[in-house]
Write a structure and sequence with these properties.
Low-confidence stretches: 1-16, 390-395
Radius of gyration: 25 Å
Largest sheet: 8 strands, mixed
CATH superfamily of the largest domain: P-loop containing nucleotide triphosphate hydrolases
Number of strands: 13
CATH architecture of the largest domain: 3-Layer(aba) Sandwich
Shape: elongated
Structural class: alpha/beta
Number of helices: 17
CATH class of the largest domain: Alpha Beta
Helix content: 40-55%
CATH topology of the largest domain: Rossmann fold
Bound molecules: adenosine-5'-triphosphate, magnesium ion
Strand content: 15-25%
Distance between the termini: 63 Å
Length: 400
C-alpha cells in the first residue's frame, strides 16, 4: 500500500501542535521544515506530491493545525486541494506559498480558502507569525463547541404560515434573553423572512454556501443583518436561484452558527431543497406547521411519519395555524385523529393583526395580539424557562 511521501513523522512525539507541509519542491520543503522545527513547531507530515483523496483523508484525520500548500508545482491541483481541505468542518488553517509574485494568484488562493499567502523567499519570522495566528484561531474555535439549539420550522403545504411563525417566534425568543438568536432563511428559492422583518440584506445563505472554503465565524458574521429586536438574520437570496449540492456547506454553516448563537431558527419552507436531510439530522426541534384542512393534515401526517422513521428523530411539535378560520370545518378530534397525535400549538386566524404588521413593518411579535400571545408561549418553552401555567394550559393544551 502506498503511503504519503514523508520527510518526518513527528506527530506522536509532538503532542497537539502540528503542521503538514505539502510542498513538492524538496529544497523549499526542507527549508520550511527547518524553520518550523527551530521554532518548536514540529512538522507532522511532509508531502512531496499533492495527496490523492485517500491520503488526504488520512492527513485530515491527523487533526493538524496548519496545512502549508505550495502552489507552484501545479497551480490548479494545489488550489483544488486547498478548496477541498477548507470545505470540511475542520478548524485547521491553510496557507498557500508561491515564488510567483502574482496578485491574481493570491486572490485565487484566498478564494479557495487559504488564510495566509507566504511569498518566497519565506522569512522565518513571517512563517512563525502566521503559524502563531493559526494556533490562536484554532484555540478560539475549540473553545466554542456548537451547543446552540437548532429549531426548524417546516410547512405541510405552501402558505401554511411557516415564515410568519418562524420570524415572529425568533423575535419572541430574542425577547426571552436566553441567549443570542439567529434566523436562517433556507427557503432558498423564494424565501421572504427578511422581508417579513422589514429588512433588506446585501448577502444571503447562498453567499455562505458558495464560499464554503472561506466559511468561518468572521465571514459568516459579515453576511448577517440585525433586526432592531436584536435578532440576527441570514436571509434567502433576492433572486430566484436554483442551487444543488448543498449538504457539506449547510453542515458547516450551521456548525458555525451553533457556536455563535444559543438558538438557530430555520425557516425551511416546504423543505423541498436537498439540504433537508442535513437539517433534519441537525435539528433539535422540528415545528411542523399545518392548517386544519384535509390536504394539509394529510401532508403533515406523511411528514411526521417520515421524521419518526428516520434513524435520528428529533423532538417534534405540531402547530395548527389559522385554526379558527371560517373555511375550516375540521374539528379538534378529527384533527388529532388525522395527525395520529395531539396538536401542540394552535395559532388563531388573525388577519387584522397580520395586515397591520405587513403595512407598518413592525412584526407581530413586537406587539400584543392573539398570535403573538401564543408565539410568546412557544418561545418561553423553547428558551427552557418554565411555562406560565395558566396560559400554557389554555393555549398549548387546547387540542389535547
Ligand atoms: N395566523 C394567521 N392569520 C392570518 N394570516 C396569516 C396567519 N399566518 C399567516 N398568515 C398570512 O398568510 C400568508 C402566508 O403566510 P407565510 O408567508 O408565513 O406562509 P409560508 O408557509 O411561509 O408560505 P410559503 O410556502 O410561500 O413560504 C401571509 O400573507 C401571512 O401574512
Ligand atoms: Mg415562507
Amino acid at each position: 500500500m502506498a503511503t504519503i511521501p514523508s520527510i518526518s513523522d513527528s506527530l506522536t512525539a509532538a503532542g497537539s501542535a502540528s503542521i503538514v507541509l505539502i510542498v513538492p519542491d524538496a529544497a523549499r520543503r526542507g527549508k520550511l521544515d527547518r524553520m518550523l522545527n527551530d521554532s518548536a513547531f514540529p512538522v507532522a507530515r511532509g508531502c512531496s506530491t499533492y495527496p490523492e483523496s485517500r491520503y488526504l483523508e488520512e492527513l485530515i484525520t491527523l487533526g493538524c493545525d496548519v496545512f502549508v500548500v505550495d502552489l507552484d508545482a501545479n497551480i490548479e491541483q494545489a488550489l483544488a486541494l486547498i478548496e477541498n481541505i477548507c470545505s470540511r468542518d475542520n478548524p485547521a488553517t491553510v496557507m498557500a506559498t508561491s515564488a510567483r509574485s502574482d496578485p491574481a494568484l493570491l486572490i485565487r488562493s484566498m478564494q479557495a480558502g487559504a488564510r495566509e499567502f507566504l511569498a518566497e523567499p519565506v522569512l522565518a519570522k513571517t512563517l512563525i507569525d502566521a503559524v502563531t495566528r493559526a494556533l490562536t484561531r484554532r484555540e478560539k474555535t475549540q473553545d466554542l463547541a456548537p451547543t446552540g439549539k437548532l429549531l426548524m420550522f417546516v410547512g405541510a403545504k405552501g402558505g401554511s404560515g411557516v415564515t410568519t411563525l418562524a420570524t415572529n417566534f425568533s423575535i419572541a425568543l430574542t425577547k426571552q434573553d436566553a441567549g443570542k438568536v439567529v434566523i436562517v432563511d433556507m427557503d432558498l428559492q423564494l424565501g421572504e423572512a427578511a422581508l417579513g422583518l422589514n429588512l433588506t440584506s446585501q448577502f444571503s445563505v447562498l453567499d455562505a454556501l458558495r464560499n464554503e472554503g472561506r466559511l468561518d465565524n468572521d465571514f459568516l458574521s459579515s453576511l448577517l443583518v440585525r433586526h432592531t429586536s436584536g435578532l440576527s438574520v441570514l436571509a434567502a437570496p433576492e433572486q430566484y436561484t436554483p442551487f444543488n449540492s448543498l449538504s457539506s456547506g449547510v453542515k458547516k454553516v450551521f456548525t458555525i452558527l451553533r457556536r455563535q448563537f444559543a438558538f438557530v431558527v430555520v425557516d425551511a419552507g416546504m423543505a423541498i431543497c436537498n439540504a433537508e436531510e442535513t437539517l433534519l439530522d441537525l435539528a433539535d426541534t422540528i415545528y411542523v406547521v399545518t392548517e386544519a384542512s384535509v390536504p394539509a393534515l394529510r401532508n403533515a401526517r406523511r411528514l411526521l411519519s417520515y421524521i419518526a422513521g428516520r434513524e435520528r428523530s428529533p423532538h417534534v411539535e405540531i402547530i395548527v395555524n389559522r385554526f379558527n378560520g371560517k373555511e375550516f370545518a375540521i374539528d379538534q378530534n378529527s384533527t388529532t385523529k388525522a395527525l395520529g397525535r395531539p396538536v401542540d400549538w394552535k395559532i388563531p386566524n388573525d388577519s387584522p393583526s397580520v395586515r397591520t404588521a405587513e403595512n407598518t413593518g413592525v412584526p407581530l411579535a413586537m406587539k400584543d395580539s392573539p398570535i403573538s400571545r401564543v408565539v410568546d408561549q412557544m418561545a418561553v418553552i423553547a428558551s427552557g424557562k418554565p411555562a406560565q401555567s395558566k396560559k400554557s394550559k389554555t393555549l398549548r393544551g387546547l387540542f389535547q
